[in-house]
Amino acid sequence: MRDLGRSPSLRVLRLMLVAGAMVVGVQALRSAPQAVGAAQDAGTASLPLSGDIVPAHDPVLIREGGRYYAYSTGQRERRPLIARTSRDLRHWTAIASPLATIPDWALARVPGASEMWAPDIAKVGNRYRLYYSVSRFGQQSSVIGLATASTLDPDGPDHGWRDEGLVIGSQAGDPYNAIDPHFVRDRQGGEWLSFGSFWGGIQLIRLDPRSGKPAIGGKPVMIARRGPAERENAIEAPFIVDHGGWYWLIVSFDYCCRGVKSSYHLRVGRARKVEGPYLDRAGLAMREGGGTVLLRADAEGRDRYRGTGHAGVLHDRDGRDYLIYHAYDSAVGGAATLRIARMRWDSAGWPVVDR
Q1: For residue 285, what is the DSSP state?
Q2: Please, which residues have CB within 8 angstroms of residue 97's CB and are 6 or more apart in sequence?
Q3: pLDDT, tens digit (0-9, with 9 covering 90-100), for 46-102
Q4: What is the pLDDT of residue 61?
Q5: pLDDT value, residue 355
Q6: What angle do CA 104, 107, 109 make, to 5 degrees?
Q7: With pLDDT > 70 as the criterion, what percentage of the chain qualifies?
Q8: Residue 85: what pLDDT?
Q9: Is 115 a catalytic residue?
Q10: What is the DSSP track for 320-351?
Q11: Which has the least CB within 10 A, 75, 166, 184, 355?
Q12: What's the average model confidence in pLDDT over 108-116?
């Protein structure tokens, strides 16, 4: 997952916590299917969701025609990726993973990998690009791959995904970790991929528009990280939004995968150019640890949904912006749950999430 390819000392504990939370959460959902997202809670920041919304980790959202599609990290029996669809953004139905298995080339680079992590989806020209990452807990040997398709509709006559192979990889000692991809196009038509988790912080690399892979001579450049005095570089999961003459970089700070004890939360900064520099509301550079809080559960533990993080944004046809993310539902044992919220823009032009 975007968050799980990080500090080795925490891997086993996180994996055990996530697995336990998922089992408890799913059992609770089976006995009370309307428990999660059945109504808008006070103190939550999400639309009322139902149907197939657990498990959901590292989600991304897109619309094709009259349907929405969400993709997220593969888990347990739903691998290598989790996919779901909805007609109204509220009730979700499971569909098959875009790729049936992890490609052989990725397994050769990351032996023992069992699922794909943190997908990103975008339409470029007449095809959809699905960027995904493959890694293992506790190691920096990671890859980002690319698959393409002409439609997202699994019942469409032309449906079918084609794996396009490696985009970028990392290994121990590199100044970055090649997971958590996000595709973005600048206003001049240039294409970029942001990525990164912990090691080296958040990176940005220019893409060749024809292939969707790094341009010749292109090298990753760090655009955000935690402050130099902080003990761990706990930042990941970039997503860049073009709005109001600014590029907005949303990232996740701190730790996921600890159930209701997760400290994961969203921060944001802005820049005039997609390459940065990104500054927070106080003017602190995100390359130096800056980032204005966009969404975070209360410190007292009263919010039902904890560890709000790993976000994507959809600018819908009605002009509304929606933030998709995952959070741990304290009402069902900390299950990682799909969340979707309206994202608005305040009088100073900064994003705010409905609560």
Answers
A1: B
A2: 74, 78, 79, 80, 81, 82, 83
A3: 799 999 999 999 999 999 999 999 999 999 899 999 999 999 999 999 999 999 999
A4: 98
A5: 67
A6: 115
A7: 87
A8: 98
A9: no
A10: -EEEEEEEEEGGGTTEEEEEEEEEEE-TTS-E
A11: 355
A12: 96
Q: Return the pLDDT at 226.
A: 97
Contact between 45 and 342 under an 8 Å Cβ cutoff? The reply is no
Residues 137 and 119: beta-carbon distance below 8 Å: no
Measured CA to CA, the distance from residue 346 to residue 230 in angstroms comes to 31
Among 82, 177, 91, which residue's Cα sits nearest to residue 135? 177
DSSP, res 215: P
- The model's confidence at residue 232, banded by pLDDT at 50, 70 and 90, is confident
Which residues, 6+ apart, have CB-to-CB distance to 108 below 8 Å?
none
User: 52, 236, 280, 303: which one is catalytic?
Assistant: 236
Identify whether 236 is a catalytic site residue: yes
Whole-number mean pLDDT of the chain? Answer: 89
Task: Please name the amino acid found at residue 276.
Answer: G
- As given in the structure block, the two tokens for residue 300 are 């007292």
Residues 223/270, Cβ–Cβ less than 8 Å:
no
Q: Which pair of structure tokens corresponds to residue 153?
A: 């509709």
User: Could you tell me whether strands 292-295 and 265-271 are parallel, antiparallel, or unpaired per DSSP bridges?
Assistant: antiparallel
Q: Per DSSP, which regions of 182-262 are E strands?
A: 182-185, 191-195, 202-208, 213-214, 221-224, 235-243, 246-253
The token duo for 197 is: 């988790």
- pLDDT in the model for residue 129: 98
∠ CA 352-186-179, rounded to 5°: 75
Which tokens hold the place of 159? Answer: 């449906």
**Cβ-Cβ contacts under 8 Å for 182 (sequence gap 6 or more):** 120, 131, 193, 194, 195, 238, 239, 240, 312
Cα-based torsion angle of the residue sequence 71, 15, 101, 131 in order, rounded to the nearest 10 degrees: 40
Phi, psi angles (nearest 5°) of residue 309: -165, -175
Among the listed residues 52, 58, 120, 180, the single catalytic one is 58
Q: Write the pLDDT tens digit of every residue in 160-197.
A: 999 999 999 999 999 999 999 999 999 999 999 999 99
